[in-house]
Automatic annotation (TrEMBL):
SUPFAM superfamilies: GroES-like, NAD(P)-binding Rossmann-fold domains. This is alcohol dehydrogenase (NADP(+)). The keyword Protease does not apply. Its cofactor is Zn(2+). Pfam families: ADH_N, ADH_zinc_N. It comes from Naasia lichenicola. It catalyses: a primary alcohol + NADP(+) = an aldehyde + NADPH + H(+). Belongs to the zinc-containing alcohol dehydrogenase family.
Amino acid sequence: MLTVNAYAAPSATEPLVPTTIERRDVGPHDVLIEIAYAGICHSDIHTVRGEWGEISYPQVVGHEIVGVVTEVGSEVSLHAVGDRVGVGCMVNSCRECENCLAGAENYCLNGNTGTYAAVDKDGSITQGGYSTHVVVVEDFVLKVPESIPYEAAAPLLCAGITTYSPLAHWNAGPGKKVAVVGMGGLGHMAVKIAHAMGAEVTVLSQSLSKKEDGLRLGADHYYATSDDETFEKLANTFDLIINSVSAKIDIDSYLKLLRLHGTLVSVGAPPEALEVHAFTLFDNRRSFAGSSIGSIAETQEMLDFCAEHGIAAEIELIDASQINEAYKRVLNSDVRYRFVIDVESIK
Ligand SMILES: [Zn+2]
Ligand SMILES: [Zn+2]
């Protein structure tokens, strides 16, 4: 066992505090990663506060991890000491269900092993990236291209793949009109990626306060959803809408913005059910869909795509001592557009 520094939640209601945790010994197929940066995802906050179900404490979260390989197991062939690597939302899967065998381990029918707050193969609870080191089985470790700025690469491991996967699956590209609902951590990545894929991109945000950013990041149009005229003007317009909002919104009024055979994909996760009227789907033969992160192969494809197109997350770099303050700001949507922890401050 390796004892390492970390920042953990002691309970659902207390702030995160510095502590130490144990990492398993490096097995034959494992790599040991010295973490350099870890992004703060809204899911981290939901998890430590027990809002997505009871968890055991203390719990270290963080599933947007980049670092350097410092040790490899005897059977490891995919990574070498010194490689710049990343770890996203999952660290293992069953490897034998229909979906795993099809290369879609993010949709593992037995549940993939989450990077934190999940039961690992050895029965322990997985601990995330707000920590100096992590041990991960080699085939769930991604290669982070050197050309992506190191700290800005971290959010790609969750926010990047969560938006890349539906954009790729539903063929965002030249000639396609794509709308992004919400200009937060996920939304700003969706704008950058959809633009890089060649689509015509429209942001639908509550207000116009981030309009300048949206246009700078690649949007062609920017509308406020607080303005009812927006919904009249844009009726029957889009081929694809990516909904990144994790609060309950009136899905029906957004579905009406889809043109013939258009699809609205939700990647935000509101706790409440979303209501849809069948007649709204009948018109234009619209689809309402969901999407959850991406497979390991697709995550690698996304990282290579971002490197090729020179894109990464817009971030605010913080020390670990600022995590609790950052959480408050995330909840107030007061971040442009992702907090990333400099893990040097945990060492
Ligand atoms: Zn996340
Ligand atoms: Zn499986």
